[in-house]
């Protein structure tokens, strides 16, 4: 995957738009139009602050369906993604929590998004939604059927989960997953939202990519801050940032343009 052709840089920083609860989810209260308006506001602030891309996800819909979300969720996310794509010039991505890559790819293809995030692309993970199995075989076949050029960003050892077997996730498993799962990019995270990935872990994954002759871009997908972004971009290819860009560093708060600018200023020192 050529990151520069999509983002205009070889070390992109992607900002998160965490959608508020959508219609039908337990915590939904405001109108869909209000939810979309706030998503557009955050997207515009991210662009104004200088990020290279945007990732949209149904963060407010907890507790999440483990896989297939209802049709009304797909419809609401399609409306939100359309509004965000029309409000910015940045490439956008879609993540349908907890793990519905078929819906994500369908939305992304419909709104001309650039990529999707898949939390469990291959293998199986134990999560608070139960055991989730990857459906890479279905996702990639749908991609082929649609003639879609939407890229697949796949989590490796995804946050808020544990391996199904007792054996810990290994660097060799990373190479196997990205090679056999045909993901366009790999995402490494800490243990949860806002939790940093261990630097030695990032270095080991970057090393195994080189050792196996892989070219799959690596992103860090949690716990990225203005203080860590330089080290991260010196180790791997890109970052997906949410919590630290919000007012007060609170995941559910609105995006702070000042925080975005501070992080991007740090990123520019190593790009």
UniProtKB/TrEMBL annotation:
Similarity-based family: Belongs to the BtpA family.
Any matching Pfam family: BtpA
Protein name, as recorded: BtpA/SgcQ family protein
InterPro entries: BtpA (IPR005137), RibuloseP-bd_barrel (IPR011060)
């Amino acid at each position: 995957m050529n990151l520069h052709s999509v983002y205009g840089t070889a070390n992109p920083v992607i900002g998160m738009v965490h959608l508020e609860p959508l219609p039908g989810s337990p915590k939904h209260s405001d109108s869909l139009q209000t939810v979309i308006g706030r998503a557009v506001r955050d997207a515009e602030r991210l662009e104004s602050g200088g990020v290279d891309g945007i990732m949209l996800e149904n963060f407010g819909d907890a507790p999440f369906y483990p896989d297939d979300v209802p049709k009304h969720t797909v419809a609401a996310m399609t409306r939100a993604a359309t509004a965000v794509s029309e409000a910015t010039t940045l490439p956008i991505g879609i993540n349908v929590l907890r793990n519905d890559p078929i819906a994500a790819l369908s939305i992304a293809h419909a709104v001309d998004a650039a990529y999707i995030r898949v939390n469990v692309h291959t293998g199986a993970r134990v999560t608070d939604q139960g055991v989730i199995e990857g459906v890479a075989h279905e996702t990639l076949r749908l991609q082929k059927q649609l003639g879609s050029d939407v890229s697949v960003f796949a989590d490796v050892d995804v946050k808020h989960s544990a391996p199904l077997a007792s054996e810990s996730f290994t660097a060799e498993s990373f190479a196997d997953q990205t090679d056999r799962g045909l993901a366009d990019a790999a995402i490494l995270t800490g243990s949860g939202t806002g939790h940093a990935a261990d630097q030695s872990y990032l270095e080991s994954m970057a090393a195994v990519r080189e050792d196996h002759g892989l070219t799959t871009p690596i992103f860090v997908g949690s716990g990225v801050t203005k203080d860590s972004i330089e080290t991260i971009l010196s180790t791997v290819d890109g970052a997906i940032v949410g919590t630290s860009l919000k007012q007060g560093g609170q995941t559910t708060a609105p995006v702070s343009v000042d925080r975005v600018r501070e992080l991007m200023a740090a990123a520019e020192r190593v790009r």
